[in-house]
Design a protein that fits this description.
It is a single chain. By secondary structure, this protein is α+β, with helices and mostly antiparallel strands. The chain has a single domain, classed as Sandwich (Jelly Rolls), CATH 2.60.120.620. Helices cover 22% and strands 21% of the residues. The protein has a six-stranded antiparallel sheet with strand order 1-9-4-11-2-12. Strands 3-10-5-8 form a four-stranded antiparallel sheet, with no helix packed on it.
């Protein structure tokens, strides 16, 4: 029996590759985490805050607190079983500029582990007006489609990636969320997001987990075991942060993100952004 979800919800996720909305925390708690991000934002540079776009649980104990929340892990356990590793905790803060977007893409297209389940956790209003996530139910079964990349200053994605194969988006749905709610989706789901028409910024945290039995990527990647045991040995372990934005945490983030960049940008013409330890600007 599932711990949190109903059996119908589990079947719906398996069929559609997505499930929304699922409440993970109260709106008040979601607001507190947004405020923690904004407090950090106020004390680090505009460039350095982009590091929160990948592996932010290595930089801030309070982000790891979200990943280790028993209720959140219970939902993941309902979907992938009791032995769980964290792939990443990735902040997607979208300006209210009416320009920043994400093209249609699959997160699995650049050599990620398979499967990874993502929970897009809203820490602000995430409706159509704010540029919420959109997805095509069932598209996780299409296989990995062909993608191209573009150094587009308006794209929130690591490589400005977008699908070039023809596909049918007529059944796409908007994953509208209230603060504290999440959409769960498979990393092969075809998804995108529109622009934020304002007036507030859109705060979304991608909580990314995988089962210990997941197929590892071609470039070995460290992950953090958060629940259960790992009898497969497909992933090295990550160190826990000792304090928010400490020298030790930053050094660990840099070393591990360098490995992630070698995976994601292996065949890229544009190279890694600041969010992956590079020098290229990140939205």
């Amino acid at each position: 029996m599932p711990k949190v979800l109903t059996e119908e919800q589990v079947r719906a996720y398996e069929r559609d590759g997505c499930l929304s909305p699922v409440r993970l925390m109260s709106a008040a708690r979601a607001r507190l985490y947004r405020e923690r991000f904004e407090a950090l934002e106020a004390r680090v540079s505009d460039v350095d805050i982009k590091k929160m776009k990948t592996k932010s649980h290595l930089l801030c104990p309070w982000v790891l607190e979200i990943a280790e929340d028993p209720h959140i892990l219970d939902v993941f356990e309902d979907l992938i079983g009791p032995n769980i590793r964290c792939w990443s905790m990735a902040w997607r803060v979208k300006k209210a500029d009416g320009e920043t977007f994400a093209g249609w893409h699959q997160d699995s297209s650049y050599g990620a582990a398979l499967p990874v389940v993502l929970a897009g956790l809203a820490l602000s209003d995430c409706g159509v007006k704010q540029g919420c996530l959109r997805g095509i139910p069932g598209s996780h079964r299409w296989g990995i489609l062909k993608h191209s990349e573009k150094d587009d200053p308006k794209s929130i994605l690591a490589r400005g990636q977008f699908i070039t194969d023809a596909f049918d988006d007529s059944k796409a749905v908007d994953f509208e969320l209230q603060p504290g709610e999440a959409v769960f989706f498979d990393n092969s789901l075809v998804h995108s997001s529109g622009v934020n028409a304002g007036p507030d910024r859109r705060f979304l945290l991608l909580v990314e987990m995988l089962p210990t039995w997941a197929k590892p990527p071609r470039v070995p990647q460290p992950t953090m075991l958060l629940r259960g045991v790992d009898t497969y040995g497909n992933f090295d372990d990550e160190p826990r942060p000792d304090a928010e934005w400490s020298a030790h945490a930053l050094a660990n983030w840099s070393a591990i993100t360098e490995k992630r960049a070698k995976l994601i940008f292996a065949d890229s013409r544009i190279g890694p952004s600041i969010a992956y330890g590079g020098t290229r600007q990140a939205v």
